[in-house]
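thought: fold this chain, then report.
action: predict
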Amino acid sequence: MPGQTRLLLQAYGDADGFDVIEPLSLLSENARPADWTAMAAAVTSAVGPQHAGVVVTHGTDTLSYGATALAFALTHVQLPVVVVASNRPLDHPEANGHSNFRDALEVIDTVPGGVYVTFRNPDGSRLVHAAARLQPSTPLSHYVHSDGEVPITGLDELPRPRFEPPPWPAGPVEFGDRVLYLRPYPGLDYRAIDPAGFDAVVHETYHSGTACAVGASTSVLDFARRCGAAGVPVFLGPVPDDVAAYESVTGFAAAGLIPFRWMRAETAYVKTSLGTGMGLTGDALTEFVCRREIAGEFTR
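observation:
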């Protein structure tokens, strides 16, 4: 939320140890891929040998997207980067932002590198998350979770991101804004969706790795064929290893659907945005999204 960084430092009481920049000031629900590009560029240009780490303030609505984007974009930054948010405005008595900020500083003092998120949940649990595995905040209850989350007292058990190099030189990156993200629901009418103009589609599955495969207007298979005819790849997942047990998935490969495993669909969306923004297409894009782990995003 705009102006909240100043309130954090005022409450902390020792602003002299911080270099503060504000490359963006917007509500997180208004964030777009271009803003992820700007955030990553700001960190890349500002960090120096005098810094022990980086704290990035962010809103909760799109926290999982923005934090994941930074995890992918900052693999070349060899310092801990911690993204913090607040469940309420910082001047609200129930705000957790101050606690999250203090925990971020503890992470920076303890963890050698990577991008993380600190968040105190409504039950009082103070958790630390690998940013590339973060889940969206739960509606209404405002809990934040991730695969491999640990309490602030258990930082030694935090998943350490693997730094496989991305297929481009280290430095600034760009996220693409022409990736369509779809979630399945009963009755989803694909006739209303024109794939032309998109660079890729990321299609989430139901929890068992399935999606509707029947009906002239509701079959993901027919939609995938239309996308293929338009030259638009469709990444579908997360697909578990035993998905073949379900009859509805037998036509996925023949329709040209590209399965991804071991990561959440939101993560795959951000990763695909980065891949297309950096100019990857075809097999190179598929290899990057589905098989190359650059920030500890795979949960296998």
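thought: worth noting. The chain has two domains: 4-157, 179-291.
final: tokens above.
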